[in-house]
Amino acid sequence: MAALAAIALAHALTAAQVVVDESGLIVPQFDAAARFHEEVARSRWSASPMEYVDGASSAVLRHPYTIAHAAEDGELFVASFTLNHVVRLRWISGRRAQYKVFVKGRELDGPVGMALESGELFVASFTNDVVLRVNASDGALLGRIGDENTLDCPEGIAIGPDSRLYVASFLLPHLSVFERQSGAYLGKFGSIGVPRALTEPSPWAPKMPGPPTLAGAEDLAFDLRGDVHVTAYYSSAIYKFNGTSGALEYTYGKGLVHGPVGCACDPQSGDIFVSSYRDSKVLRFTSDGQFVGVAAGVESEHDAARAGGATAARGSSRARTISSPSGLAFADDGTLWVASYATGAVTRFNSSFGGGRTFWRVTD
Predict the structure, then answer these.
(1) Which residue segment(s) compose the domain that 73 sits in?
(2) Distance, CA of 326 to CA of 310 (rounded, Å)
(3) Quick one: which of 221, 328, 260 has its CA closest to 4?
(4) What's the pLDDT at 351?
(5) How far does Cα 357 stand from its chain's mean position?
(6) Which pTM was predicted?
(7) Which of 80-84, 114-118, 314-318 has the highest mean pLDDT?
């Protein structure tokens, strides 16, 4: 997602401040004196005491990267990458929502991953290699976790069953583990060894290449058994690590997911949901890596069968319900929230049962 980050930054810069490297990535070039005065002008940290206001829109949620669901009150925290703030969103009904800019400041430079635990919000700051620990009620900054020696463009965050903080950095081939309260660095997690194949190869099959490389780590999620699933944008695959040993068990999703970003575990079924950024879908897998189907972004087979020929006429419209999905979050009741990075939309889905399978549809 570093590619998306650079593109988003480019929109905010003039042409003279941008170069394109050989790989096609847009790289910002800053004038040192101008950047110094810009930083001095910004407050280091600001927690907003304002009341909620109507009118949450893509202007407020520009380039939403991740979502964190507050189970206590059902509200959402949404990180806006290019606006450098976290919005607290209160859903009213249908398309109506209220919001307030929860936290901002130059400590928060490119907010990406978030996690909620015991009244505290953890936010990854992509550009300055730190995770910020924030009071989830009043926005007070409680501490800083990590630095350039332990993180490198941090993105995904998750609290493990052991209450430790696990962080995926886009430019590191492993996860970094910290003590949640003190911020002490506990070491690396996720060793890349030869993965176990989901199916045994035939004896005459050609020899498989070496172990995969975790390229462009985006997000991570713990499944109900405590194992860790990590999305890798440039590898276009999901990596499953043993939650106890950290050994790589296998990769999955190759050829199905294109530019995986967000990753979330359904608290009811235990399935893993992954946002496929480049083809605007959310895919569903079992925790063992078996593909279940497209959860959002296109018509389900169930809907197509019920609607008959009329489905084709409106299929393209439904496919645009989400666009370039990034962050995913589940509520305890099975509601799935999806952030569309390109359009600034936050879409809510719920589950319904038909033919023994769970399908998803827009709630409102």
Answers:
(1) 47-362
(2) 30
(3) 260
(4) 63
(5) 26
(6) 0.77
(7) 114-118
Residue 155 has pLDDT above 90, yes or no: yes
The residue among 267, 167, 172, 265 whose CA lies nearest residue 214 is 172
Q: How far apart are CA 100 and CA 110, in angstroms?
A: 18
Whose structure tokens read 């319900």? 321
- As a three-state string, the secondary structure of 93-113 is ECCEEEEEEEEECCCCCCEEE
What residues does 133 pair with on adjacent strands? 122, 143
Count of domains forming the chain: 2
Task: Clarify whether residues 161 and 132 are in a common domain.
Answer: yes
- 3-state SS string for the chain: CHHHHHHHHHHCCCHHHEEECCCCCEEECCCHHHHHHHHHHCCCCEECCCCCEECCCCCCCCCEEEEEECCCCCCEEEEECCCCEEEEEEEEECCEEEEEEEEECCCCCCEEEEEEECCEEEEEECCCCEEEEEECCCCCEEEEECCCCCCCCEEEEEECCCCCEEEEECCCCCEEEECCCCCCEEEEECECCCCCCCCCCCCCCCCCCCCCCCCCEEEEEECCCCCEEEEECCCCEEEEECCCCCEEEEEECCCCCCCEEEEEECCCCCCEEEEEHHHCEEEEECCCCCEEEEEECCCCHHHHHHHCCHHHHHHHHHHCCCCCEEEEEECCCCCEEEEECCCCEEEEEEEEEECCEEEEEECC
Say yes or no: 190 and 80 in one domain.
Answer: yes
Q: Are the C-beta atoms of 27 and 19 separated by less than 8 Å?
A: yes
Tell me the one-letter amino acid at 96: R
Is residue 62 within 8 A of residue 344, CB to CB? The reply is yes
User: Token match 């202007």: residue?
Assistant: 59
Task: Return the pLDDT at 334.
Answer: 84
In this structure, the answer to whether residues 341 and 206 fall within a common structural domain is yes
**Which residues, in sequence order, are bridge partners of residue 281?**
276
Q: What is the CATH number of the domain that holds 111?
A: 2.120.10.30
Q: Could you read off the pLDDT of 96-140 as tens digits, one per residue? A: 678 888 988 888 999 999 999 999 999 999 999 999 999 999 999
Does residue 178 share a domain with residue 101? yes
First to last CA, the chain: 30
